[in-house]
Write a structure and sequence with these properties.
single chain, binds iron/sulfur cluster, alpha/beta, 346 residues, TIM Barrel, 10-stranded parallel beta sheet
């Protein structure tokens, strides 16, 4: 392994931060040698997460009807995408989806609502549903993603049994104004901090493929690091017709792998999850993505379909990895095995 690559892997194994120059170097790795990068960085994933893969399932509990103008989103007020639009789902429907998520092996159920943020009435309705899901499926971790939170709402969610709150930074501070004008980058960071201070496990990640530069990728990675999230979902843009970013196809499978390698190095011992766009952008290289990330979504995304859960389970098993069970901890308090820094194997 070349010196600079060994150095970044060693730093991550010792949970020492990468410099900006090192982060940019990872993103500039030659595309034709990306397998070498994946092989080296996969040691970090293996060290902290062993062979485990955490499965998450997503339920779009409120779709469309959003007054915000996020360029990438099919549910925004400026999107003309032909998506389903509906208000908060009832408890029975969420319970049905929760049952399917358990069948597929999901450990976490992510309940996602469109909109700037919930009204107090919506939080009340949501928490009733959560209590019922928790009663029937106590082993499922519930993650809520309801947008910007107002005073007291995070506490109500925590009290109802919500485990985590997702709110992505999505982009660098510099680039954020180019993808959304109805709320700010600071609004997003504030909500993650509010969720965290109410005792919810913070989940915050990013979306790539929107025209960002390498500097933007590094900026958002480092900004997320400052938020100290417990899980970091990495999305790759699905350029949905009817959205302003429709037709934007700048990502290659190699670029996606380099971004995942960077996030594994920046977050060596934190859950890194491949989220939307996995099938579209990693294509036949999806298994390599799992050598870097330790979590994926199974089933469909918000308004687009994912591949069948069975296919994901086969991929995990073909890689010699195993689905993390409900009782297992995702955050590694103890390391998965011992480390030798004299090169890598496998
Ligand atoms: S990302 Fe969320 S806030 Fe932005 S338009 Fe979509 S649903 Fe609305």
């Amino acid at each position: 392994m070349e010196g600079a690559l060994l150095e970044v892997v060693e730093q991550a194994l010792e949970v020492r931060p990468l410099s900006r120059e090192q982060a940019l170097w990872v993103l500039s790795y030659p595309e034709e040698r990306v397998a070498e990068l994946v092989g080296a960085v996969s040691r970090v994933r293996r060290e902290f997460f062993g062979a485990r893969v955490k499965l998450n399932a997503l339920v779009n509990i409120k779709s469309g009807l959003c007054p915000e103008d996020c360029n990438y989103c099919s549910q925004s007020k400026i999107s003309t995408a032909g998506i389903q639009k509906y208000p908060y789902l009832g408890t029975d429907e969420v319970l049905e989806r929760a049952a399917k998520a358990r069948e597929a092996g999901a450990k976490r159920l992510c309940l996602v609502a469109s909109g700037r943020g919930p009204t107090n009435g919506e939080v009340g309705r949501f928490t009733e549903t959560v209590r019922e899901v928790r009663r029937r499926y106590p082993e499922l971790e519930i993650c809520a993603c309801l947008g910007l939170l107002k005073d007291g709402q995070a506490g109500e969610l925590k009290e109802a049994g919500v485990h985590a709150y997702n709110h992505n930074l999505n982009a660098s501070e510099r680039f954020y104004g180019e993808i959304c004008s109805t709320h700010t980058y600071e609004d997003r960071g504030r909500t993650v901090n509010e969720a965290k201070s109410s005792g919810l496990s913070p989940c915050s990640g990013a979306l790539f493929g929107m025209g960002e530069t390498d500097d933007d990728v590094v900026d958002v990675a480092f900004a997320l690091k400052e938020l100290r999230p417990d899980s970091v979902p990495i999305n790759f843009l699905i350029p949905i017709p009817g959205t302003p970013l429709s037709g934007k196809t700048e990502l290659t499978p190699q670029r996606c792998l380099k971004i995942l390698a960077l996030f594994r190095l920046v977050f060596p011992d934190v859950e890194v999850r491949i989220a939307g766009g996995r099938e579209v952008h990693l294509r036949s290289l999806q298994p390599l993505g799992l050598l870097l990330a330790n979590a994926i979504f199974v089933g469909d995304y918000l308004t687009t379909e994912g591949q069948a859960a069975q296919k994901d389970l086969e991929m995990i098993s073909d890689l010699g990895l195993v689905v993390e069970s409900a009782g297992e901890r995702t955050l590694p308090r103890e390391r998965a095995g011992s480390v030798t820094l004299k090169g890598y194997s496998g």
